[in-house]
Amino acid sequence: MTLVETIQTVQWVFLGYFIALNLSYIILNVVSLRVIERDADARAWQLLPRAFSSLEPPVSIIVPAYNEEGTIAAALRSLLQLEYAELEIVVVNDGSTDGTMEVLAREFDLVRFPEAYRRSVPSREVHRVYRSLRHRNLRVVDKDNGGKADAMNAGINVARFPLFCAVDADSVLQRDSLARLVRPFLDDPTTIACGGTIRVVNGCEVSDGFVEKIGLPRGWLARVQVLEYLRAFLFGRLGWAPMNALPNVSGAFGLFRRTAVIEAGGYRSDTVGEDMELVLRLHRLYRLSGRPYRISFVPDPICWTEVPDTLRELRKQRIRWHRGLLESLVGNWRLLFHPRGGAAGWLTAPSLLFFEAIGPVVEVTGYLVMATAFALGVISWGSFAAFLTAAVGIGILLSANALLLEEMSFHLYERPRQLATLLIAVLIENLGYRQLTAFWRVAGMMNWALRRPIAWGSAPPSDAPPAGSGTTVTGDDPAVAA
Amino acid sequence: MGFAAISEPVVRVAWATGLLCVAVSAALVLQVLRMRRRLARRKRRAEAVIATWRPLLFEVVAGGSPRLPPLASAEEDAFLLLWLQLLDAIRGAPRANLAAVGETVGAHALAHRRIRGTDAVGRILALRTLGYLRRPDDRAEVLRWLDDPRAYVSLAAARALVHLDPDGSADDILPRLATRTDWPIPLFASVLEETSRSRLSARFRALCGELPAPILVRVLPLASLVDAPIVDEILSWLLDPERDPEVLAAALRHVRGPALLPAVRRTAVHERWSVRVQAAAALGRVGEPADGELLLQMTRDPEWWVRYRAAQALAAGPFAAPEEIVARAAHLRDRFARDMVRQVLAEAHP
User: Fold this and answer.
1) Are A279 and A294 in contact (CB under 8 A)?
2) Which ipTM did the prediction report?
3) Which chain B residue shows the shortest CA-CA distance from A118?
4) Looking at CA atoms only, how far is residue B61 from chain A in angstroms?
């Protein structure tokens, strides 16, 4: 095969891939448009007086914390102000090496609590459980460092209520976030998990743990991520949800049925994408066993999170995300094209594998092949420009559509200047940012292939109390022990 | 080798795709701008309505009778929203005064017009307006929307019906609640709280006799709105150990009266822990001092939740003083039971 024939073959492969990828995005967009239209209808709910009912299920909020001494107290104060009939808060100090534990003890008057600890899902050694003298519904679990997933498992083990909500310590919620997120569990008793829309908090005015005024970040890097989040949630998640094929419930704020997660074995601590892995595992277990279930999504913007504003931090995040995606897919490969896999097995998993996981490799290869061919004079400037225009044009269209969906639904960035900023961000996103993140995602793939260690916290703290010195019983479940 | 290497059709497709995408993107941005302009106009209008009407409505609430300006058609939605918000917030005579303002400005005719429209928001506003205006001849119209397939329209209709007819509305809402699995029970329960309790109780008793087990479990939480003797009557019928464990557990969850104590005790040794855990909790609510021993036994249950609820019942009920519970727990040979009692006492008496 000559060089020209090779390049011609490659270009047809790229074009086919490009069409399939963007067709899938366009289909998701169409579904999202319909859902947003229907949701605009459903927002008529908000015209009805909100009645807090004692029949709403109580919720355990689990907050894993590793070296959060600067933010943990404010985060908990805002959680304690959530409008919900009955909730408890379980903070899991995952072997922090800073003053997290001291801040918690000081700010919330912690006293040791003789928790009869049960190990429903595996987690590292729990040293002590504390309770707050100021807030009866606040407990703190102090444990060996084991990563976020391990901390979540420890939280699940001490949670008292049938639903648990995973919240990052730096998440900013709205007062009615929990009430909105619980609605799908009321509407459909087979609901086992529900996620909501996450928005970027950089640039917003936050007071007493709640967003007071919505703004855009100062730097372009974070501004572009505002668009990315709009796209990811307004058509990524929204498009999948009606098919009961949601690929992820964000670890920043998601609600789960405790028994379903315990039955699935809890969070896996050997992956960096523990939230996506858990959701794919739930799909796999329920689909393959033929049990009815629903994993829902609430499009309301109910959680705000800080995004990286430096290239270094962003690079680390994207590498971690991509590795998490690959680990989640490998761990749940049986879902892929399984006869009983339904939409999750025949649409979500293949899309994650072929478009999200392999996509960056194809994209980067495409850029390199086209640039090389152009440099070697194999293709003309016109051909090169045509492919670039197509790639960038599709990206711009998807981002512009995300802006339209936002306008149709929540209209959060209402000032004209904010719209202008976002329009410039659309261009930046497609002329540099996307290419950069594609390279990082390829690095994430390498990282996964080479099994390089990534963790949110590494070694256990040197001043951790000795194992077994706590007041809790950490033995096996008596049913098993007997 | 040369520029001919790239086949022309591919290049043409690429150009066309790119340019089409840019053109559609530009159209979407224009649409966003158009929507923004429309929204800004609506917002300005709403602000003007609030500035005009809020002081007047407050004056009415305070017992005054201000001169009311005519309501322009462009102001209708904003006015109804403001008026309904105020009505939701007040009770008694001021509510009647405010409802009279609605009649004066023509809210009744407006509601009938909007209810036949196509948008859900207009329909919700209309249903809520008819509810607050409380004209008996609107009952049939409101009832029609109770069967709307959208749960939020049904909920608005149910709320309006309760306002229109507090005595009779339970007869219409309750049977539908059993069949409409899409209706969230907690939201409709909060509506039913405003209906006549005696009528609701009688209807609930009749309904429970007709329903199959899974639906019964679904509607049983409404027992909290029903008269205690009727709840006891229904539960004593349900608390048969031979029944489906799910029904038993649901029934135990609503035990509030000591008359059911013998039946509760029988379920404390049920083979399913989901029943035992509810039995422990029920004993905590209605148990007698003699049940202390049974609860102490239950703290040795293999299931954590049964131990927890049994220990909670011991700590909260009339079984023994905390010191005595500690002393009795100390003699337990089962360390899981001991630890559970310690945990629960720490929860109850920090």
Assistant:
1) no
2) 0.78
3) B304
4) 19
